């Protein structure tokens, strides 16, 4: 894997090709897992296929703050490991659907963070490429939506070690002020 510096040097076509290859690799890695999962900023839903005819009493499902185990009683667990991030156990649930699927709903503790994976030892997804469902964003009124988009932007910037939108605004304001006052020395100025 090459670093982000290389990525910045690529042409638009090369980036699109790399993104497509990354998405395909990611999709293949995720498809190989014994479950599927989706997430919103606030929660994660995991779907685990089980043999047809499975009832809740046949299952061993353990949901802890930072650990998830799902399996059939007396057999090797289908999934078992440390969760990517902490969850609210009391708000997380599981059910069996049509006696062939276990649906697990996990409430995130940090509701402003995308998960890279469900279990830490499983392949990660690139959270910077997540596009929240537009319908969900467009359901929000303009102000809330702007706030959510800003939060997501800030979150991505932080992950990449780049300034958040507020910091960018401050830097821009300071730059304008400096241009307007060339006689002042800002070399020691700290932006707080």
Automatic annotation (TrEMBL):
It holds the Pfam family CS. The lineage of its organism: Eukaryota, Fungi, Dikarya, Basidiomycota, Agaricomycotina. Residues 30-119 form the CS domain. Residues 1-28 have a biased composition (Basic and acidic residues). It comes from Trametes coccinea (strain BRFM310). It comes from the Eukaryota. GO terms for biological process: protein folding. GO terms for cellular component: cytoplasm. Residues 1-31 are annotated as: Disordered. This is Nuclear movement protein nudC. It is found in: Cytoplasm. Required for nuclear movement. May interact between microtubules and nuclei and/or may be involved in the generation of force used to move nuclei during interphase. Keywords: Cytoplasm. The keyword ATP-binding does not apply. SUPFAM superfamilies: HSP20-like chaperones. Coiled coil: none annotated. One of its GO terms (molecular function) is unfolded protein binding.
């Amino acid at each position: 894997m090459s670093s982000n510096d290389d990525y910045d040097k690529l042409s638009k076509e090369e980036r699109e090709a790399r993104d497509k290859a990354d998405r395909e690799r990611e999709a293949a890695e995720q498809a190989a897992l014994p479950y599927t999962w989706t997430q919103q900023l606030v929660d994660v839903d995991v779907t685990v296929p089980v043999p047809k005819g499975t009832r809740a009493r046949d299952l061993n499902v353990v949901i802890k703050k930072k650990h998830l185990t799902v399996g059939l009683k007396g057999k090797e667990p289908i999934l078992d490991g440390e969760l990517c991030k902490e969850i609210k156990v009391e708000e997380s649930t599981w059910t069996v659907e049509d006696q062939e699927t276990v649906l697990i709903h996990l409430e995130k503790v940090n509701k402003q963070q995308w998960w890279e994976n469900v279990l830490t030892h499983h392949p990660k997804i690139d959270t910077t490429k997540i596009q929240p469902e537009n319908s969900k964003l467009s359901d929000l009124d303009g102000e809330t939506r702007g706030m959510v988009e800003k939060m997501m932007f800030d979150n991505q910037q932080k992950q990449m070690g780049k300034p958040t939108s507020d910091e960018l605004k401050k830097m821009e304001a300071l730059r304008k002020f400096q241009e307007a006052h060339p006689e002042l020395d800002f070399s020691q100025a700290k932006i707080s």
